[in-house]
Design a protein that fits this description.
592 residues, globular, 2-enoyl-CoA Hydratase, Chain A, domain 1, disordered N terminus, eight-stranded mixed β-sheet, alpha/beta, 43% helix
Length: 592
């Protein structure tokens, strides 16, 4: 046992004999104090969570649906101490601006049926969301209006997609200094070939599919004809949906809405927005209280935001049988990262399969794809569930493309929205060749191998592929494409040749996906759940959601990761260069 000594000094300045203190005793005292403080903090935080989770729905309530932040599929627990945690040293903790689509839809349903809610106030209009999920919210708001209750919208400015949602309102307000960015849609992509040429890096491309254009920025300086065609078609489809829906709500002909967009309304005055019929009146956002008093008929109205209204207790089903809903959102990865992590999803699917109370499974897929291997692993886990006579239904969000379609294709039934981006049935691999860069900076490579291709992975990167190696790698990609198309053919009950004819990496909108047979029906997550209930022949059931909602404590612990953005970027670069990657990923474009 180790000891340390401490001298003590009396009040008269005389040194007293040293006392010997044991480290073990000191540690015991430290941990006792630590656990006592932890217990107190835990009690306080527990009380905080308990009180914050209990929200009372009062009479004369307005649901303030703030269309800001980033729309995600599954909402998380409200963060009650973001401001405190963000001020602590070494913490990168910030309040999450993610808003759950599930919470929004649940709140709209509650607001429709509960007489204590008078109406909905759509506040702000800057939310980052895709056109398919925007349509889901818009349709829910249209259904809400069947109750006879009102919707008003207000914002400093509206993006096109947010305006598409807000156009259902009975009254659309705009700040006198704002504008409606009803300018049409555009999709653009950066091309890196000239930059890579300058620094001496060649991206070696292996792909199957004329339309598999995700890799084009590495070896082209502009869009290919095939890529331009598919982007034009899905942008036109989305824009047509926006014009038809807005035109119906605002009583403006689609051709007139095109003419308005050609004026680039984003820089027109607020008065011009009123003249064009896009908004009804100009109101400073700070003066919305006066308008809400008129609509509610009282100055004592209550306002609940999305997170608060979501915390109002709902009736819970006591049914034994379950319909499992598994949210799969983000890029598909193998073993780490955010989004759809293959090994974690497989683990969750096994858990669902072992639960005897689960009688049906719904996959809510919102993914542009990713790792081909992880997609295959998830597909296999889903098929094992189907083998247990558990029906599987897919509900597609904004995206279910490439790997996102891979994990969907084996379902018994597939729903999408008309503006869902799906398909992109194709595979590619990218391998950087840094031989010229290595020569520029003066690096030499040498080594010893026992066999002809022992150092293949390093040689591909640092020396580049020779014709034999290129043929080997291309054959691997083609085997992956053959497997992908065979999975799709099996799931959709068509020939593999047909899948290849509509595949080639081509992206389709949901309504077109139904025409060519890769989607069964247009519909929402609720429609998918109802279909799963029908297939499982259930009368009484409850819905169980996976994965579990992340609690704020977990987010706090993650916040003390001091890894900088630059270090995270370098980690991704090292992962890219560590081995050849086979991806089932749709083209990435920015739609504005």
């Amino acid at each position: 046992m180790a000891f340390f000594y401490r001298n003590t000094v009396s009040a008269d300045g005389q040194e007293r004999p040293r006392r010997r203190v044991g480290c073990l005793g000191g540690c015991l005292i430290f941990f006792a104090v630590y656990f006592l403080c932890s217990a107190i903090l835990g009690w306080l935080m527990g009380d905080m969570f308990s009180s914050s989770s209990k929200v009372e729905l009062k009479d004369q309530t307005v649901y303030r649906l703030q269309l800001k932040g980033t729309l995600v599929e599954q909402g998380q627990a409200e963060d009650p101490f973001a401001s405190v945690m963000s001020s602590l040293p070494y913490s990168s903790y910030t309040k999450q601006d993610n808003v759950g689509l599930d919470n929004i839809l649940s709140n709209i349903r509650l607001a429709k049926t509960d007489d204590r809610v008078l109406g909905i106030w759509l506040d702000d209009a800057t939310m980052a969301m895709g056109p398919a999920n925007a349509k889901t919210i818009r349709d829910a708001l249209l259904d809400f209006k069947q109750s006879g209750k009102w919707i008003i919208a207000s914002a400093k400015s509206y993006s096109a997609t947010n305006y598409y949602v807000a156009s259902v309102a009975d009254l659309i307000c705009l700040d006198p200094t704002g504008a409606v960015n009803w300018n049409g849609l555009s999709a653009q992509r950066l091309y890196y070939k000239r930059l890579l040429d300058k620094i001496g890096v060649e991206m070696q491309i292996l792909k199957v599919g004329t339309f598999k254009s995700a890799v084009e920025p590495f070896f082209r300086t502009s869009m290919s004809d095939a890529d331009r065609l598919q982007i034009e078609q899905y942008l036109d489809g989305i824009w047509s949906e926006y014009k038809d829906a807005v035109g119906t709500s605002r009583h403006i002909a689609p051709v007139q809405l095109d003419a308005i967009a050609d004026r680039y309304m984003g820089i027109q005055s607020a008065q011009e927005q009123v003249k064009a019929g896009l908004v009804d009146t100009l109101v400073y956002t700070q003066d919305m209280d006066s308008l809400l008093r008129i609509y509610t008929g009282t100055k004592d109205y209550n306002v609940l935001t999305t997170s608060k209204l979501a915390a109002v207790e709902r009736p819970k089903s006591k049914a034994k049988d379950k319909v499992a809903v598994l949210y799969l959102e983000g890029e598909i990865t193998d073993e780490d990262g955010e989004g759809i992590v293959g090994k974690e999803v497989v683990k969750t699917l096994k858990k669902i399969q072992k639960d005897d109370e689960v009688k049906a499974l719904v996959l809510r897929v919102n993914s542009p794809g990713g790792s081909a291997d992880a997609s295959e692993q998830i597909w296999h886990a889903v098929q094992k569930i189907k083998a247990d006579s558990i029906p599987v239904v897919v509900s597609m969000g904004d995206y279910a493309a490439s790997g996102g379609y891979y994990i969907s294709c084996g379902a018994d039934y597939i729903y999408a929205q008309p503006t869902t981006i799906t398909g992109s049935i194709g595979i590619f691999g990218t391998i950087p060749n840094v031989a010229k860069l290595r020569d520029k900076v003066g690096l030499d490579l040498d080594g010893v191998s026992t066999n002809k291709h022992s150092a293949l992975e390093n040689n591909l990167i640092f020396k580049g592929m020779n014709p034999e190696e290129h043929a080997m790698m291309q054959a691997m990609i083609e085997r992956g494409y053959d497997l992908f198309t065979s999975r799709c053919a099996e799931g959709r009950h068509v020939s593999q040749d047909y899948i290849k004819s509509i595949g080639e990496g081509r992206v389709w909108l949901g309504f077109k996906g139904k025409e060519i047979g890769i989607v069964d029906e247009m519909g929402t997550l609720d429609d998918a759940v109802n279909k799963a209930v029908e297939l499982a022949q259930l009368d009484v059931y409850q819905v169980a959601y996976y994965p579990d909602v992340v609690d704020p404590w977990s987010e706090i612990l993650k916040s003390f990761d001091n890894t900088t953005d630059e270090e995270k970027l370098m980690l991704k670069v090292r992962q890219l260069c560590s081995k050849p990657r086979v991806l089932a990923l749709m083209p990435e474009v920015t739609i504005q």
